[in-house]
Amino acid sequence: MNKEFEAHFSELGYTQPTAIQTGVEAPLTNGENVVGLAPTGSGKTVAFALPLLAKILPGDGTQLLILAPSQELAQQTTRVMRDWAAIIGVNVAALTGGANVKRQIERLKKNPEVVVGTPGRVLNLLDDHRLKAHLLTSIVIDEADELLAGETRTDVEDIIREAPGDVQLSFFSATKSEALDQLTSEFGIEVTTVDVRDIDETQGQVKHGLMTLPANQRAVMLRRFSRIPGFQALVFFNQLGELERAAASMRHEHVAAVSLAGKQRQVQRADAMRDFRNGKVKFLLTTDVAARGLDIPNLPAVINYDLPGSLVTYTHRVGRTGRMGASGLVINFGNDHDIRSLKQVLRGSDYQLQPLYFAHNAFVDERPQRVESVGSVAKKTARPEQGSKAKVRSGEKPGNTSGTGSATAKPKPQRAKAATSHSSKKNDSAKVQAASKKPHTHKKHSKNKGMRHKHQLKNQEGK
Fold this sequence. Notes:
By secondary structure, this protein is an alpha/beta fold. The chain folds into 2 domains: 3-195, 3-Layer(aba) Sandwich (Rossmann fold); 206-364, P-loop containing nucleotide triphosphate hydrolases (Rossmann fold, 3-Layer(aba) Sandwich), CATH 3.40.50. It is 41% helix and 15% strand. The chain has 19 helices and 16 strands. The chain has helices at 3-11, 19-29, 44-53, 71-85, 101-108, 119-127, 144-147, 151-162, 178-181, 183-187, 218-225, 240-252, 266-277, 288-291, 311-318, 336-345, 374-382, 422-437, 442-462; strands spanning 34-37, 64-67, 92-95, 114-117, 138-142, 168-173, 192-195, 206-212, 233-236, 257-260, 283-286, 301-304, 328-334, 353-355, 357-359, 362-364. Strands 3-4-2-5-6-1-7 form a 7-stranded parallel sheet, with helices on both faces. A 7-stranded parallel sheet has the order 10-11-9-12-13-8-14, sandwiched between helices. It is globular. The protein starts with a helix and ends with a helix.
């Protein structure tokens, strides 16, 4: 390591290089094509930055090009590169989509020795002859498994063709893809692979929790999490529409949250990242591409609002927490079917999933017991017990609710039989007969009778 770099390395609080930094230093210094595989948060940017910067000749034009899959990762890498490049008097320019292209062209006129950019914008500036590739000595493809998939692969291939034939190529990622196995046949190069994923010790202790929730309760749970002092989380979504619905719900409930999505303007995305890094908001709602490779120091948690469909995606999502020895928490939302699918996806990996619950404003490992409030218990005990009335179907006798006669009804209390004489029976019979002769319109009859009585009194007075 350059002596000037060693001093800055110590100033930043590092005591020794990580496994990936040690593993790629010699082959990169020697000009070899390298594939570097290391866990998320293990210092891959510094791993390629220091040996490649050490070979740059200040004032000799653009010699190092670094490609990243997103604007945020490109800006993050630019900050790291500038920090180290300033020590040796080297300039770094960022070329990303969404930013002012005229300003970027002005920066290129100063012939920066290092350029960091997204493939689309870099290729556009190469085609316009604003960016010169003939002096390039090294190209780094960061998050290579992402950049060598889909449409961006074609852009990367076109960019490499613009460079000299002997340009040094480096590919870095936390996960290995089929494309990385085909570099020799696809690009016609020999590569040195440095894979430290099994020996790296930079990862902190990360708990992977399963929280069973229906879809309509997930935004509600985020609101509850927001009440935890000091809590922050990167929240991942599979679809942009679901992200927007959750963001609207957060705004409605006055929860401090920002979004990071591809269709936003570069200024909006930069503001969102700044507010989240500075702790002004609780949640950063994002998608996989937008958040790929982001380094947010001491991030407490990652929440999979929608569960990922592959081990690679899960690895890159959860790698945002527990970086460089810090502890972290991963919260996976889903219904029973979702969780079964996730377990299938992660089968054979080292991830240990366990149930997670939220009670009394804290995360707990055991299902909390529901305790009724004193008020609700009091209401129940103050109410007298009443026998439940069974519904009687047409044609059934009370008590037979099944239609089979198997149901038993509570027997009616028997009236006590008293010894009676013959005369008392006759009296009772007479009373019943008298009662049966009373008219049903007793009140109406009484009213008419009262009116006739009143009329008679008036006649008597008139006489």
